[in-house]
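ok so for the tutorial part 2 we go from a plain amino acid sequence to predicted structure tokens. step 1 is just haveing the sequence, like this:
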Amino acid sequence: MIDWDDVRFFLAVARGGSVRAAAGHLGVNHSTVLRRIAQLEERLGAHMFEKLPSGFRLTEAGGEILELAHQMEASSHQIEARVLGRDQGVRGLLRVTLAPILATRLLMPDLADFARLHPDIEMEILSSGELANLTNRQADVAIRVVYDRSTLPLNLHGMKGPELFSGVYMSRARLAAWRTGARDPVRWIVISIHGIPEWAGEGEVRATGVPFRTTDAEAQLVAARNGLGMTTLPCFVGDADLLLARVPGTVLHMQGALWILTQGETRKTKRVRLFTESVFRRLEAYSALLAGQSILRD
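step 2 — the prediction. this is what the tokens look like for a chain of 298 residues:
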């Protein structure tokens, strides 16, 4: 009989393309991965991978069992989710994935309130640039900005929250200096992987310097507050910051709606239901802020 754990290691190597990548993903050492692959090959009587200078490549036999391995993985996740769905207690782990700026600049007080209200729920907030995967059970709940619901996997269940808008902002001090004719250049401040959005435009203030690039939203915000130039920010960030002002002549842009997403039987657990209902209420309360309507800006 094939050991599912051996298949997990096989999938990790197939996806990562190397033993090192698989070991990092699974949180084990290099030798453990090699031992598990060897066990699987011995049971099946065939080599699963070909070792190349660039990494590990599936052999013909490995390619043949790859789809079956994916099916085993999906079945394993379904079993876990079904058992979890029967758990109606509020004690246990609750993993929530969301963008860092949503966590730090909007929802953290509400997440803290929920944790205090339910002290037996062990919360894990996964606020990194790459959102965790619900289907693979990396998280129980995802809070995501979704422009088109049809782009989401069919197995995800969601509660649609308010729409999220962004605008163009610069520091009040820098805007005041521009109005008095200051000659130092105004730069676009951009996150490197995104660049300047097509919708942003420059309004009444024209960019005259080379772009200033950052790799994360927090650095982007701090650069704008320090007067380097103008940048696009979610309205809930830009409007709430007393050091920033909207750039005159620019428009708001709808990024999508905030969705609270769960997967399969997971949504039926009591702690997940309590959390999703609580966050949905808080997002509804923030709807004007998210739409850029809560504060009259100059």
